[in-house]
Structure prediction request, 278 residues.
Amino acid sequence: MTYGFVGLGQMGAPMAGHRAGPGLIVYDTRPEAMAPLVAQGARPAADLADVARAGLISIMVRDDAQVNAVCAALFAAADPGTIIAIHSTICADTAIRLAAEAGPYGVEVVDAPVSGGFMGAQAGTLAVMVGATETAFEQVKEVFGAWADLVLHMGPVGAGTRAKLARNLLHFVSFAAAAEAQRLAEAAGVPLGRLARIVRHSDATTGGPGAIMIRRTTTPLAPGDPLYEIMSHVRALGEKDLSLALELAAELGVDTPLARLSAERLATGLGLPQEDPS
Prediction:
């Protein structure tokens, strides 16, 4: 199957590069973005109608407006049976609407946002969250595997984007928490560069926030659940350490709103009652 790729920016160019060769058609509004891939054997598309000749087309553009414009052009030009994969992070319902609009053309839309950043795109180690029919997923997973080492079917169209939004919520809330921790460390005289090395080292070992994402539901745990004791241990450590950090912050006059909120919500977040019945 000929593979088309639209949008050759920081993420799209290295992703497409893993499939560079005669079977790849590329398109970007900047001819200079296509040149390196063309040098590797890819064919440059003159316009979106040209790239629509591909049986599978990946889109990695900036936002909903660009995704909508690209899809409108592709729907009109693509042959029935074409699959269009949207890798951009977009609104939760955009892919669902576009899939409905593609139906009369016989075109199938999948949403397949990625996680792993520029480094993962370069290395071919991205994670892909695919929202698609079972049939479409089977058709795209091998192609995506050229630039990703984790390709998961998250559910029907739209599920990929919803998973990406949840994943990025954790990502950027963690950034805000990291900034709060740095303010506390700086006020306490801790070298921030050394703290950063400790965080990266320990998170690489423990898995960071993802280490506690082992429940299949966020409903409260029953006392007899095998995870109850594990989460109770996490809670005890967390509440102790958060209490100590909040004490230090109060002594140093550092405002730590995320730490306060975490102390209030940790137990519930772990699936435990606020007051331990034991």
About this structure: The mean pLDDT is 97. The chain has eleven helices and nine strands.
